[in-house]
Design a protein that fits this description.
The structure is a homodimer of 383-residue chains.
Chain A (H helix, E strand, L loop, with lengths): L8 H18 L3 E2 H8 L3 H14 L2 E4 L12 E4 L5 E7 L3 E8 L4 E8 L6 H19 L6 E8 L2 E2 L5 E3 L11 H8 L3 E6 H12 L8 E6 L3 E7 L2 E2 L23 H4 L10 H14 L2 H25 L3 E5 L6 H15 L5 E4 L6 H19 L10
Parallel strand pairs in A: 4-7, 7-10, 11-14, 14-15
Antiparallel strand pairs in A: 1-3, 2-3, 4-5, 5-6, 8-9, 11-12, 12-13
Helix pairs in contact in A: 1-3, 2-3, 6-11, 8-9, 9-10
The first copy, chain A, binds a DNA duplex (30 and 30 nucleotides) through helix 1 and helix 3.
DNA sequence: GTTAATAATGATGCACTCCTTCGTAAGTCA
DNA sequence: TGACTTACGAAGGAGTGCATCATTATTAAC
């Protein structure tokens, strides 16, 4: 009720225009009648709204559907190619970029390996290269891009500085948003990677149906994010979800159980170690199974805390280890059943390694929506 | 954006009416011009809105202000006495009732002691008596009451059953909402007591300015509640905030440190034991201070988990022990500073023992607002 | 006591948005 | 080719909000 406001007749038109845009973005091309039905407006009114939106460049006409009875209806769709969005995943070992249209449909993706100890300037240069190649792959230039949304490991400030980053030591203290703004002449937003992955999960993953979700970002690093009331919870200082910092949660070192298991061949690369243990556990190796048990024990402590505190509808296991959800979920469920009041639905993520960069695109879309739905914020020209 | 909808012209009027009601509820009597200024509408339009609201019985005129230059303006106010609200705090040792008008202004309060082992039927009878005497005290009858909002210890289901209650053993399994509905011929809502106290704190307490808050409900029982984005977070199964159930949080038995301190005289009643320890600690008794340290150690573990997870703007210490905030807050701050990324503002509640019953009234007001702001929900007749 | 200043009131006309209705147009099907 | 179906477009009407202006009630100053 805080934000509920009436106003002018033009405000009403604005609301109806936005509802129409929302309907068009949600579903593919729609006829006027279909739009009217969805928004609750009458057809003539809808016509006027759509005419206006076409004039503003937000909506365009598409060829009518074939083979329908009666006079073929004009069809309209959101003009998703008025501008483009770039998503970035700046991780310890990889930099990923994605190019998407205003609907968040991904048109191109690129990836470049880096190392956790890559110096800052070199890493920033790699980011620029990755984005440039992604734009080239999609046949666009940076001038076509409206928003760059970047996700990175670590605790970030609301303004987009890296407050603390254990995974990329040199990252700590960097004004990432500032540096990216120097690099890209458009709107830049920066967010924690786990929260972006959670967003992707809520937008296109396994929890599109739920509005209260605990997202576990598990892999070589442990992270978490919360979706509350349908929104990714950011926290007052943009530091929500950092339960790994609590010693009692036994989270920080939990992956060690999997990465230092005695059955791992000595020449295995660190990137594959945990995978080896998980695969062995799937095959029934008792030592690996014991390691998994210990890992899940630790994982469950922090997860229980989150579940007890938030009583979410769903817990999602995402991140690198989610590929082994078949091994991890049953014991995790078992632990949660014992410690929680109500066992939430426990699911595995269906998004792969692109979850963060996908979430970054979704974050950019949300940012655009926010601008769209907030009067007084100037929009990039759409025509 | 999910709930953002345009619509009809009547929808616009509805929005403006609700904005007007909101403005009138927030501030005392307002003139037409003041209302217009607040809502952004023009004076003539405001007039029409107010006329309609007067006709519907939501708004009434009050005598004009004296001693103003120019023609005195008519003043209008929300007709808070169109109906009444009852708040209930059903605790282990006390039942409290409050009667308030539709603005949430409390007109009468009553209290009746009970015991944790009071049988269910007897306790329900006590509830009925407490409410009856409260109504009598306020000069109203149950027919004047639109909503009864009840808070009680324990985990409740979304439907208002007691899922589990450690403090009142016989309470577990009771369909509290159902029994109260049999008792009172009006709308009945049931909520966890800590969440109600948090709501009171957000509405009239120390955190009116913050939208992300961790509320610690500390006393002989430990509870917690979260305010996220300005809303009290309830959880999918209405079981949010139950971090005390997590063994690692060391919360459940934390009050024992204060209640079983060796310096407490043997004939002290259990209700006063912790208070004795806290008072001794304030006076500098080393044994009491050590007990307080141990208590805060435990309290800080669960609090750290919540702060790390949610990154709230404020942590509020409420409940019975908040009277000793001067003793508890400094060491709690110290612990949190060490374990958290960003130390939130740590404050003491200013509401006393009536925090839950006050919060129940605020919950009833919120429920009424919800009905007001949700079309299609029939309202109690207001005229 | 009279007059000027101030601020609210009430009435009028206008602009905008949405709705209903109806005749017309453009397809499919028999 | 004609019947049927569906969409289009235009016209008229109702509801809502705004700007404007003459009127009214009160205070302040002379």
């Amino acid at each position: 009720m805080a934000t509920l406001r009436g106003g002018d007749l033009s405000r009403l038109r604005q609301l109806n225009s936005l509802t129409a845009i929302g309907a068009l973005r949600g579903a593919g091309p729609l006829t006027l009648s279909a739009l009217a039905k969805r928004t609750g407006l009458s057809r003539p009114s809808m016509k006027e709204v759509v005419d206006e939106l076409m004039q503003l460049g937000w909506v365009e006409e598409t060829p009518p559907a074939q083979g329908t009875i009666g006079r073929p209806a004009r069809r309209y769709r959101f003009r998703a190619s008025s501008g483009y969005l770039v998503g970035l995943d700046i991780g310890g070992h990889n930099i990923r970029a994605a190019l998407a249209n205003l609907n968040g449909e991904i048109l191109a993706e690129t990836r470049q390996p880096v190392r956790p100890d890559t110096p800052v300037e070199e890493r920033l240069a790699a980011i620029e290269r990755t984005v440039a190649s992604c734009l080239a792959l999609g046949g666009k230039t940076i001038a076509d891009v409206w928003i760059v949304a970047a996700g990175t490991i670590g605790v970030i400030t609301p303004e987009g500085r890296i407050h603390y980053c254990a995974a990329i030591p040199a990252w700590t203290g960097l004004d990432l948003a500032g540096r990216l703004r120097e690099m890209f002449p458009c709107d830049v937003v920066v967010e924690n990677d786990s929260r972006l992955a959670a967003r992707a999960e809520a937008q296109r993953g396994t929890v599109r149906d739920a509005s209260d979700v605990v997202f576990l970002h598990v892999g070589r690093r442990m992270g978490a994010a919360l979706i509350i009331g349908g929104n990714v919870h950011r926290g007052f200082g943009a530091a929500a979800g950092e339960i790994a910092m609590l010693p009692q949660a036994q989270w920080f070192d939990a992956p060690e159980h999997l990465q230092n298991c005695s059955i791992i061949p000595p020449d295995t690369s660190p990137a594959d170690a945990a995978g080896y243990t998980l695969a062995a556990a799937r095959a029934g190796d008792p030592v690996a199974l014991a390691a998994v048990e210990r890992y899940v024990d630790d994982l469950a402590v922090g997860t229980s805390a989150m579940v007890l505190l938030l009583d979410p509808q769903v817990v999602v296991l995402g991140g690198g280890f989610s590929r082994s959800a078949d091994v991890l979920l049953p014991p995790l469920r078992e632990r949660l059943r014992r410690s929680c009041i109500r066992l939430p639905d426990v699911r595995a993520s269906t998004l792969g390694d692109e979850c963060v960069v996908t979430g970054a695109i979704d974050y950019a879309v949300a940012h655009l929506d926010h601008q769209l739905f907030t009067p007084d914020v100037p929009l990039p020209t759409s025509r």
